[in-house]
Amino acid sequence: MHRWSLSLLLALTLTGCGWGNGEESAKKQADYDAIRLLGGVWTDDATGIVAMRAQNDTIFYTDSTRMPVKFSIYDDTIFLMGEREEKYAIVQQTEHVFAFRTPGGDTVTLTKDTGENTEFEMPTARKDVAVGTDQVVRKDTVLQFQGQRFHCYVYVNPTKYKVNIQEQTYDGLTVDNTYYDNIIHLSVFKGAERLFSRDIKKRAYRHLIPEDFLSGAILSDMELRHTDRQGFHFFATVCVPDGSSCYLIDNIVSPEGKLSTKVVE
Fold first, then answer.
1. Of 135-149, 167-181, 196-210, where does the model show the most confidence?
2. CA-to-CA distance for 204 and 187, rounded, in angstroms?
3. Do residues 263 and 250 touch, judged by C-beta distance below 8 A?
4. Under a CB-based contact definition with an 8 Å cutoff, are residues 208 and 236 in contact?
5. Which DSSP letter does residue 6 get?
6. Sheet of 259-263: strands edge to edge?
7. Angle in degrees, CA 77, 79, 83, rounded to 5
8. Are 51 and 113 in contact (CB under 8 A)?
């Protein structure tokens, strides 16, 4: 029988941090003896790697990118109550063994760690997964165009706007990940005169990019590529996080300070 890896076990809990739909489960009588038994540090039998720590009604992970999740146990079932409730039938539970069955019928077995890992540091909050950097990326370019001196600025500004992406594990499970979008500030100066200045969000390209792609993508970057008779060509990338799918958008600032956009073929 195929055994799930530790990474797959952890992926099951990436569904959120609040009680969410778990409120309905909380109305039922919890098995407090079973909840107490789950307290402690647990390792995956298949890998020997620490999987989690259960304390009171919350499961914590050694990886701070994974949010703690509340849980409850009743009717020989453990419920993980994140943004979306997940439940798993308990196959065996003792003081030192916890085994449960996945929706696909596989069994995951954990063993309580009684050694040096027992006191590992528990993260109390998740760091949201971010693509790129949490620092402002600044790109300044000075150039001669049509016999005059121009100064171009591109600032890639990280935001707290979240893009929720559903991804598939190699076993076909759907997990939810959260990424941060960016806002890009673009300015063009002719000498001391401000020719163009605007904050650009990915929604500015909704007439060029299908909505089903745009809703799951982030505005990743922008850079000055070249100039010609049309003006200044700034190429922006709108990409699915951690994926290979991107749209490349040509942002053309004319010598008169007008902006036009088109998809780069």
1. 196-210
2. 16
3. yes
4. no
5. H
6. 218-228, 231-239, 246-253, 259-263
7. 160
8. no
Residues whose CB is less than 8 angstroms from the CB of residue 28 and which lie 6 or more positions away in sequence, other chains included = 74, 75
| Residues 209, 49 contacting (CB under 8 angstroms) | no
Q: How many CA atoms lie within 13 A of 240 on its CB side?
A: 12
CATH 2.40.128 matches 6-119? yes
| Nearest CA among 4, 10, 8 for reference residue 64 | 10
d(CA 49, CA 41): 11
SS3 letters for 141-196?
EEEEECCEEEEEEEEEEEEEEEEEEEEECCCCCEEEEEEEEEEEEEEEEECCEEEE
Residue 239's pLDDT band, with cuts at 50, 70 and 90, is very high
State how far the Cα of 161 lies from the Cα of 176, in Å rounded to an integer: 16
CA distances in angstroms from 53 to 68, 117, 194, listed in the order given: 10, 10, 57
Q: Burial letters for 73-112: b for 16+ Cβ neighbours within 10 Å, e otherwise?
A: bbeebbbbbbbebbbbebeebeeeebbbebeeeebbbbbb
Q: Quick check: 54 and 71 in contact, CB under 8 A? A: yes
CA gap 28, 5 in Å, rounded: 31
List the beta strands (DSSP E) in the chain: 40-44, 50-55, 58-60, 69-74, 77-81, 85-93, 97-101, 107-112, 137-145, 148-168, 174-190, 193-200, 218-228, 231-239, 246-253, 259-263
Pairing of strands 231-239, 69-74: unpaired
Hunting for tokens 């789950």 — which residue is that? 38
Q: What is the pLDDT of residues 53-112, one digit of tens each?
A: 889 988 886 655 556 778 899 989 988 776 567 788 899 999 999 998 877 777 888 899
What class is the 137-263 domain? Answer: mainly beta
